[in-house]
Amino acid sequence: MPGTPIKSDTVTDQKAPKSEQTRTLILETALKLFQERGYDKTTMRGIAREAGVSVGNAYYYFESKEHLVQGFYDRIGSAHQAAVRPILDHESDLQKRLAGVLTCWLDIAAPYHEFAAQFFKNAADPESPLSPFSPESEPARRQAIDMHREVLAGAKTKVPDELADVLPELMWLSQMGLVLYWVFDRSENSEKSRRLAERGAQLTTRGIVLARFRVLRPLVREVHELFSDFLPGMAQAAASRKKASRPAKQGKASTEEASDG
């Protein structure tokens, strides 16, 4: 049975470049067919036929079905980024900021609920490029972690400097737990998932407040290290973060040496 119809705003926007309109048309057609036929039964040829473009054109914009799902991740992420701005720009209470970000994601993802359930078996495979921990998913993963970093940075609850890097990643992991629950949640309007988001935000906020006590900080770091050791995406994120911060540190050191000289 078909899922919720895909809303199309960009395709009808005549101001968008022709290439962008075509790319969006192919993506939206793919999402529609994923919902109606299932991920495994949808082919690139079928997507091209339904979209009214050549197969070669479809492959020009998306190398594979997996790349189409990455386009879906990007779409959800961009829409989420825009929708949470009022919360992050005007709310300073940490629990409300986090709960707002989580429930806002549920609102954005709601039209794709049935589709998400259909392709989850592929995304659950750690070797699949559809996995949220895969190298292919790194841009979407990094964008989501950066959002949680902003959640912390704009809150009146202060976070110890030594935990400023690890907490956003742990918060993203908790969001992934919410997403997993949401995929299988059949309550009306995903009401159970919404309650989980609210209670999860409350529990996370309490944990962050307690992390201000120095004696508990090693525990937070150990939990983060545990996930980094066993989840490849977390290890890659940590390595990327260290690599990105190294030039900044070197630049600071050079500046200090120059001032000393």
What does this structure look like?
There is one protein chain. This protein has 261 residues and is an all-alpha fold. The chain has helices at residues 18-37, 44-51, 55-61, 65-83, 85-90, 94-109, 113-123, 138-153, 166-184, 191-210, 217-230, 232-260. The longest helix has 29 residues, at 232-260. The relative contact order is 0.09. Mean pLDDT is 82; it is low at 1-13 and 252-261.
Question: Can you count the helices?
Answer: 12
Form type: elongated
Give the N-terminus to C-terminus distance in angstroms: 73 Å
Beta-strand share of residues = under 5%
Helix percentage: over 70%
The mean pLDDT is 82
Low-confidence stretches: 1-13, 252-261
Specify the biggest β-sheet: none
Count the E strands: 0
What's the gist of this structure?
With 261 residues, the protein is mainly alpha-helical. It has helices spanning 18-37, 44-51, 55-61, 65-83, 85-90, 94-109, 113-123, 138-153, 166-184, 191-210, 217-230, 232-260. The radius of gyration is 21 Å and the shape is elongated.
